[in-house]
Amino acid sequence: MTEQREIIWRQARPGEERPARPASPAEARARLESGNADFAKLGDHGGQQIISVGPEAFGLPPAAGAGLAQQPFAAVLACSDARAPVELLFNQAGNSIFVVRVAGNVPGRECLGSLNYAVTNLPTVKMITVLGHTSCGAVSAAVDALLSPQVYLDVIQDPSLRAIVDALLAGVRMADQALVNTYGRDIRDAPGFRDALVDLAVTANAAITAVVLARAVDCAVTFGVFSLDNRTVGITGADGWDAGLHDPPDGDRSLTQLLTWGAAAAGL
Ligand SMILES: [Zn+2]
């Protein structure tokens, strides 16, 4: 029998207590992490989840005659991929997350401007998260551009596509180097290398973008990768998959360490 799964957004009943909006970066992080854990659990075991929301989640003001204020507790820079719907995978209702989505979650000027706007004008925003995802098509395009000069020559015919691919190439190169350092140069000919490079480059890109944001925007920043396999957000750490959001690498060594763990876990 197929497991039944339901997510119900329900306006809080009169007198029903709802969790307070996160008031710190740590609370915002915990809210997104627990929301994602609930979402993943629904996928694993089925069942029903009820998200109790205020009227503003339905586009209604909290009281008659009042305005509808924008009050997200976090901002997320995510990929446009339809398999990684931000509010859904964090189990959050409308007016909870300020979302910027662009292919490859690259930090272009418009994206940085949007996030800066949120941090400057929406005091309820306590944290920014960069969210990559496994099997990313944009990162795959950048990987193919690195592996095949002909693919890159095709890409540069289209300036809009080139802008995204060029923004991703630094992460792809770092991931490639980590795999070569771990397995040797011949690994580039191994079956499975391209897929491993895509997923490690996704991690590299999310981590690099988190570093960029931490320097460009006056707000706490975390990052993670949404796994299409287990539906949790996390990264590969020293002991395998480490679910949850993570601080940006604090320098070259911690970024290299992160990619070395990811390369080892690729199991090529
Ligand atoms: Zn993507």
TrEMBL record:
Its EC number is 4.2.1.1. Residues 1-20 have a biased composition (Basic and acidic residues). Residues 1-29 are annotated as: Disordered. It is an enzyme of class 4 (lyase). SUPFAM superfamilies: beta-carbonic anhydrase, cab. It comes from the Bacteria. Keywords: Lyase, Metal-binding, Zinc. Belongs to the beta-class carbonic anhydrase family. This is carbonic anhydrase. It comes from Microlunatus aurantiacus.
